[in-house]
Amino acid sequence: MPSTKIFLDEEELPKQWYCILPDLPKPLPPFIDPEIKAPGGGVAPKIFPKQILAQEFSQDRWIDIPEEVREVYKLWRPTPLFRAVRLERALKTPAKIYYKYEGVSPPGSHKPNTAVAQAYYNMKEGIQRLATETGAGQWGSALAFGCMLFGLKCTAYMVKVSYQQKPYRRIMMESYGAEVYASPSEHTETGRKILKEDPNNPGSLGIAISEAVEDALKHEDTNYGIGSVFNHVLLHQTVIGLEAKKQMEIAEDYPDVIYGCIGGGSSFSGIMWPFYYDKVSGKTQKDTRFVAVEPTACPSVTKGEYTYDHGDTARITPLVPMHTLGHDYVPPPIHAGGLRYHGIAPTISLLASKKQLETVAYNQVEVFDAAKLFIQTEGIIPAPEPAHAIKAAIDEALRCKKTGEEKTILFLLCGHGYFDMQAYSDYFSGKLLPYEYPKEKVEEAMRKLRKLYPWLDDVKKKFIE
Ligand SMILES: *Cc1c(COP(=O)(O)O)cnc(C)c1O
Question: How far does residue 219's CA lie from ligand 1's centre (Å)?
Fold first, then answer.
């Protein structure tokens, strides 16, 4: 039986993050400030520390990880890489399946990789508090954890449905010392306005982002922390792929294909970027495929349009060049599968448009079917988000069974699902339904966006196409 887990010593923890910007097939389109209909960062300089802003636009390929941040990483890093021997056997596949597991961090996902770094840089620049949004609570708990370790306060605006249906993540944030509000809340103008129009508004990530950004803008000592989408966040996640490369080396293997789920795209980028660097720098001859997996209920890349849209519902953020379902997207209430953001990281959009990565979408029922098989062979209960990557990896392994190919498959298990038992309960009792977000709804949102900004196609033509 081949070895099923590969650990690295603490000294193997990466000393630098990898930044993909200088290696992209073309430069990233700029943000557009809708006030001036031209490139501009909008509110960004007012809500992020200088070091983070510098990283956001960095053309340096390698960025030093501060020693204080590495010391915190050592609480759970390097994370293990597993060979899914029992899953392979159950599938009777000749393929080899590996997964990198980020669920061993104290908050239970990959998110503290960036939360810790963000808290550190804000602390260094004298900030006292970070405000943020959180959906199911994974990002909020990661930032609360990071803030706690560097002595900052943390305020999390948590999407109301999750606040009501998933109290345990909220309690986790509070245990780390954060204050948590159900969003839309009475604490911001944005929240008050939305509640006045619709007191039963269930909330969305877009609304919660608007509230957190407003909070940061209105308080001198407060900045904003973001859990995905931005370049600096994706960059902090590359410790995942850098470690995975060393571990694949120990296994004397190299992936033919890499799968990861995408909400905003940070965990997937974290595992993909270092392998992409191998490819563009000629360090490997292998034509590794990178496949990002999303839910059919929130198909940002597979059904969305690559254009300019706001990152938030209240349109406080600048226009971001990305695939989008429209900034007022609200996930269908039957959707349990996580990954609920209307947009995606601009680097994912650019790489997808240049065919440097592929995207595929699955519905929540087939995703939980895959999670069940994974649980009953490998033992770890995955979060619903990475279960999308598991589904894709299993499908690939089954294709290999048909063709007899001995491919090496790597996927990212970016978090555990021990706070997602309600979703599993709904699945086991047959309450989950397959759901496809209708194309017409995307088209409607795009018409609305063009009505709002009649010049949208001009900037799109100029910067994106
Ligand atoms: C936040 C989160 C995601 C989605 O965000 P990405 O930026 O796409 O990684 C996926 N899985 C888990 C476990 C998460 O916490």
Answer: 28
Domain boundary among 199, 231, 263: 231
Q: What is the pLDDT of residue 317?
A: 86
Verify that 182 and 330 share a domain, yes or no. no
How confident is the model over 345-404, as pLDDT tens digits? Answer: 999 999 999 999 999 999 999 999 999 999 999 999 999 999 999 999 999 999 999 999
- Among protein residues, the one whose CA lies closest to atom 13 of ligand 1: 415
Q: Which atom of ligand 1 is nearest to the CA of 142?
A: 15
**Chosen domain end from 179, 202, 231:** 231
357, 25 Cβ separation under 8 angstroms: no
- Ligand 1 atom closest to the Cα of residue 270 is 9
Nearest-CA residue for ligand 1 atom 10 is 385
334, 432: one domain:
yes
pLDDT at 335: 73
CA 31 to chain centre: 20
Torsion of CA 170, 174, 176, 180, to 10 degrees: 70
What is the tens place of the pLDDT at every residue in 203-262? 988 899 999 999 999 999 999 999 999 999 999 999 999 999 999 999 999 999 999 999
Q: Do 178 and 300 belong to one domain?
A: no
Note if the pTM is more than 0.85. Answer: yes
Looking up residue 325, the CATH number of its domain turns out to be 3.40.50.1100
- Closest residue CA from atom 5 of ligand 1: 263
Report the pocket of ligand 1 as residue ranges, CB < 6 Å: 109, 111, 138-139, 227-228, 261-268, 339, 383, 385-386, 414-415
Query: Which own/partner contact pairs does 389-394 have at CB distance under 8 Å and 24+ positions apart?
Result: 389/259, 389/260, 389/261, 389/293, 389/413, 389/414, 391/293, 391/362, 391/366, 391/367, 392/259, 392/291, 392/293, 392/360, 392/362, 393/97, 393/99, 393/259, 394/87, 394/91, 394/370
Interval between CA 262 and ligand 1 midpoint (Å): 7
Which residues in 363-428 belong to E strands, given as ranges?
Answer: 408-413
